[in-house]
Amino acid sequence: MPEWLDAILGWLQDSTLGDAVRSTPFMYATLESLHILGVAVLVGPAFAFDLRLLGVGRSQVPVTRAAHYLLPVSHLGLATAVVTGILLFSAQAVGVAGSGAAPWKLGLLLLAGLNVLVFHRGVYRRVDEWADVAPTPVAARVSAVVSMTTWTGVIFAGRFLAYI
């Protein structure tokens, strides 16, 4: 790890925030629990939407209705996971960043975010043209598979942070 990055991580870990998360009774465990709930609220609706893009429930739920109900819930989960993740990271920044799983988690998070961006700026901009067709466009289905794969990888890498 470059010296400058190690210095930043050390500063974060030794900050008032990092110290508070580490030393306040039950704070770390509470944040960890909220982080898991945030991930569940993010990934559950995202997977449901991805499954709809892949054709599950095609005759019952239009893509636009699925997006209308599921994606805002997923955004709430993302916000919760990001805030709690940063707080958890502040408590053990040096150790977590040194984990062999850290580059995987960060890389997969970036890939998941890029996938969302490409999907919404690409094929989903024309959803009115394909919302009622079967099957959904290949680009939408590829995005769904990438989404499900990357979020699964993020969860696995997150769990492995403590072990490798």
Give structural notes:
With 164 residues, the chain is mostly helical. It has one domain. It has helices at residues 3-14, 16-23, 27-53, 63-91, 93-97, 102-121, 127-130, 138-160. It is elongated and about 55 Å long. It starts with a helix and ends with a helix. The relative contact order is 0.15. The model has no long low-confidence stretch (mean pLDDT 96).
Can you give keywords for this protein?
single chain; about 160 residues; mainly alpha; about 80% helix
In short:
78% of the residues lie in helices and 0% in strands.
Percent helix:
over 70%
Count of discrete alpha- or pi-helical segments spanning 4 or more residues: 8
- Write down how many β-strands occur, each being a DSSP E stretch of 2 or more residues: 0
Q: Main sheet?
A: none
Order of helices and strands: HHHHHHHH
> Shape, please?
elongated
Number of domains: 1
Uncertain segments are none
Structural class call reads mainly alpha
Instruction: Report the β-strand fraction as a percent range.
Output: under 5%
Mean pLDDT: 96
Q: Topology, please?
A:
Blueprint: H1 3-14, H2 16-23, H3 27-53, H4 63-91, H5 93-97, H6 102-121, H7 127-130, H8 138-160
Helix pairs in contact: 2-4, 3-4, 3-8, 6-8
